[in-house]
Write a structure and sequence with these properties.
Number of strands: 12
Number of helices: 5
Radius of gyration: 18 Å
Structural class: alpha+beta
């Protein structure tokens, strides 16, 4: 088994290091965040850091890199208070990945890909059409991670759009039925397959 010390990692080539550290945490969520600026320009960008914060109230978080560089998604959320989270599925992986390109704020990634914006229930931010799972989100608060100046943005789920056949009788959303993607590292996409669900565990007597 290979071993990398902290000192070795610090001295690796930049690209090798970011690939190593970004992939060592394991598979992550693969989502497109949709926003619209105060000027009405739509933005959609891939994120692999969306995570569950709590169920009551229903909160999700995601991480932004330092804002020393222009971050259109973050700026749009702060100026309007609303955004969407759309799950990436197998048929849109390449277009979803292209949204990681750094376009100017006056250019919409929807115009540079085959992704199509969609508005539902008069919600201000655009969803991604045909995404099997779409979440309408409202900004709640944020926290600065002092160790590296990244930002944890926390939002509340205002609405949930999910394809009918994905919701099980107990409320569980079976993502594998929709061929929802996951991300390992920065650029590796996989389609997970549900193997089993296990019962709630209690201590053995």
């Amino acid at each position: 088994m290979a071993y990398f010390s902290n000192e070795q990692i610090d001295n690796f080539h930049h690209l090798f290091k970011i690939n190593l550290i970004n992939s060592c945490s394991g598979y992550k969520s693969a989502n497109l965040l949709g926003t619209r600026s105060s000027e009405g320009i739509e933005n959609v960008a891939v994120f692999s850091s969306v995570t569950h914060i709590g169920s009551h109230p229903p909160l999700l978080g995601f991480f932004c890199r330092p804002t020393s560089m222009l971050r259109n998604t973050y700026e749009n959320i702060k100026s309007t208070g609303y955004y969407t989270i759309n799950h990436i599925h197998e048929s849109i992986i390449e277009d979803a990945h292209h949204t990681s390109a750094k376009y100017d704020s006056n250019i919409s990634e929807f115009d540079k890909t085959k992704l199509i914006p969609e508005y539902k229930n008069n919600f201000q931010a655009p969803f991604v059409k045909n995404a099997p799972l779409k979440l309408a989100m409202e900004y709640v608060e944020e926290y600065i991670i002092k160790a590296n100046d990244t930002i944890l943005v926390i939002g509340k789920i205002k609405g949930l759009h999910v394809d009918d056949d994905l919701v099980e009788s107990d409320g569980f959303i079976n993502l594998s039925k929709a061929k929802i993607a996951t991300i390992n590292g920065l650029d590796s996409y996989a389609i997970p397959e549900l193997k089993t669900r296990l019962a709630y565990q209690r201590p053995k007597k």
